[in-house]
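The protein record passed on below.

***
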Amino acid sequence: MNLKARRFFFYLFIAIFLVGGAYLIVSAQGLVFDFHTLSFSRTGGIFLDYAPSEAQVRVNGTIHEYSSVIDTLFGSGVFLNNLVPGDYRLEVSYPGYSPWEKTLTVEPGVVTAASFIVLWPVDWGAKKISDQKVSDFWLTGSGLILKTGANTLSFGDKPIKGDSVFLSDTGKNTVVTGNAKGYYLVNLAVASSAIPIELPAAADVTDWFFHPFDQNAVLAVGSKAVYSVNTATGKAIKLYTINGNQYSYKNGNELFIAQKDGSVFSANPFLQTEVTMPTGITDGITEMRSNADGDRLYLVDASGKFYEYDRSNGTSVPWGTLPGAIEKVSPALDDTRLALISKNGSLSILSVNDFKMDTEITRGTLWQISAAAPVTDFMWIPSAPNYGLLLENGNMVVSELGTAKPQNQYEVASGVSKALVNGTTLYFVKNSSLFEINLKQK
């Protein structure tokens, strides 16, 4: 090799060393060359957490190969690192399940997360659990009560007294039923017997609740009084006098009653306290919920205006821009959000506390959930905090509830007249047949 050639390779190696060294230094600082902008940019990442954990991930249509140690550190998730800032099309899929798809944006030096991904089955495996024609049903601690005719209730294929259930709970074996002749206490251990409830002639009861601490009593809320009813005898005694009952709600040990003058009467039989709270709402309260502690009430008046009543300072504050007049309110199980169904059938989520899921969400943030038809009912799914069940004029859909759009949605069943979630089990009536689905994720 002559001198000229040796010099060429010497300078070539020096150039490679300098360029390679510079690239290593730049890469060590989290920088890559972005060919779209023809400049160096700090990289970002994407973290996905999903169930089933064996699901396959595609990035911009290409299968992500689990080749690095960092992929296995997150168990059911994957961390995609050293990504050039920009938009990435992501798909999480598994055989027999509907895929999850979303476009996420990577920003310099930031990890974008989607950490509450659940894949739902293509075939939900709905199981018919009654051969009878069912028009309604109720959950109890001993099983389901079915309405199998215009005036027929059955429990375990045996008739029980009454044509409707007014009080039941998944942790209780006693229910309150009724018909045109009155109300009855039914102990499901001996469902064939029913104890008539003896109420004053002018009681005009509209709401029933289980007593917060007395296992041998239930509460009946009338137009002017609240009664305690003994479950062994059916006899009622007056506990509280109220100024007209417009809407009643119970949270833990506390009973709330919206009165005709716009105030809310609160009674805690366990602490033996009662107080009347003037809310300043003069249009009549038609819906009422509270946070877990009961120190904030969420109230809706007859016109659909939505208020938050703060018990610490005794003020009612109307929320700002909402999607029309509100009809139904459903608090999240973790006390962070409210699902709001408007009178026109739109569904929105309102954050009532600062909280973090994949991003920081501040109190007062409001976002809408897509729906193909007016939403008539909504249920949170206890095992999947970022998903809910929507009933859209009989079409039942599982929907993502996050702020990032589009929200992935999956049809469960059509022609549904009623649905209830109990833990990981979904019950619903379709075409007069009762079904159940196990919502437990793989």
Observations:
- The helical segments are 3-28.
- Confidence is low (pLDDT under 50) at residues 8-30.
- The chain has one helix and 43 strands.
- The radius of gyration is 29 Å.
